[in-house]
Design brief:
alpha+beta; seven-stranded antiparallel sheet; 4 helices; globular
Length: 162
């Protein structure tokens, strides 16, 4: 990691360390939870001596990008303070993402404003988009995967003859 990446990571860790909604996943990868949404915070190199902070929330998976949905996402993008809705066609996933410059110029207030906006928008729109266009929220997919892992580890049949 270059010095700007280290400074960015340290700021994230110091700012969020007491929050119960925050987890450090790996070096330069963090997650925060807001309601039903998760925001991945990634520290990335930018050139040799700079860093970028990218916040991404996967809102809805399993939805095709058709005319009405595409139009709504583009219209929503015009009203946002910052960040943008996006679509990953390979995963059929609607995302919300925002990037800012990291390093020593990034301060706590700027970091918190970015994280707060991304998290609140993600939490609000995952439900709205699923209700209108279908698919599944990331929270629902994670819960399903957790139940499946639990059942694989403990594959018991229940004897209902009591």
């Amino acid at each position: 990691m270059n010095p700007a990446e280290v400074a960015t990571s340290l700021l994230i860790e110091r700012t969020l360390e007491t929050s119960p909604a925050y987890r450090k996943v790996d070096e330069a990868l963090y997650v925060i939870k807001q309601g039903s949404a998760y925001v991945m915070i990634t520290v990335l190199p930018w050139g040799k001596d700079k860093a970028m902070l990218r916040c991404t929330s996967q809102l809805v998976k399993g939805v095709a990008l058709e005319g009405a949905l595409a139009k709504q996402l583009l219209e929503l993008n015009t009203y946002l303070r910052f960040g943008a809705f996006a679509y990953d066609p390979q995963e059929e996933t609607i995302l919300f993402t925002h990037s800012i410059l990291g390093g020593t110029t990034l301060d706590k207030d700027e970091l918190l404003a970015t994280l707060r906006d991304v998290a609140l928008i993600a939490d609000e729109y995952d439900d709205k988009l699923v209700a209108k266009y279908g698919g599944q929220r990331m929270l629902d997919l994670l819960e399903e995967a957790a139940v499946e892992r639990l059942m694989e580890k403990h594959p018991r049949e229940f004897d209902l003859d009591i």
